[in-house]
Design goal:
About 80% of the residues lie in helices and about 0% in strands. By secondary structure, it is mainly alpha-helical. It folds into 2 domains: about 45 residues; about 70 residues, no CATH class. The model has no long low-confidence stretch (mean pLDDT about 85).
């Protein structure tokens, strides 16, 4: 009888600890999901921010530089598609586009992008 009482007490303590652990785990999982959602929103906002000057272009991450450079060398149809895809506005891209037209030599990714685009055109 005494052993059974100890076992019941131990089981109660175990269940209390387990409940506390699971409650904390659920709270942490909820926080993690909220952080992931915020990070995803921030990433999307960063992707929408088209560089407005050459200095801004150099300060962006490589992926954004590459995306902007692809936009700059694309034809009008492709540019329209990219404007829609990345939620860019013409007034947002026009300043860098003007700089690009005036001085193409400032953009370091262009040789790679042009080579890549040409190879895609002629690959069957």
């Amino acid at each position: 009888m005494k052993d059974q009482a100890i076992e019941i007490e131990w089981q109660d303590d175990y269940e209390a600890v387990r409940y506390t652990y699971i409650s904390q785990l659920l709270a942490l999982a909820k926080q993690r999901n909220e952080v992931e959602i915020r990070e995803e929103e921030m990433r999307k906002r960063r992707e929408q921010m088209f560089p407005i000057s050459f200095d801004d272009f150099k300060g962006k991450g490589k992926d954004i530089q590459l995306r902007a450079a692809r936009f700059l060398v694309a034809d009008i149809v492709k540019q329209e598609k990219m404007l829609s895809e990345f939620n860019w506005a013409w007034r947002q891209v026009q300043p860098l586009k003007d700089i690009f037209v005036k001085d193409v030599s400032n953009f370091p990714f262009l040789p790679f992008i042009i080579t890549s685009l040409v190879s895609k055109m002629y690959c069957f």
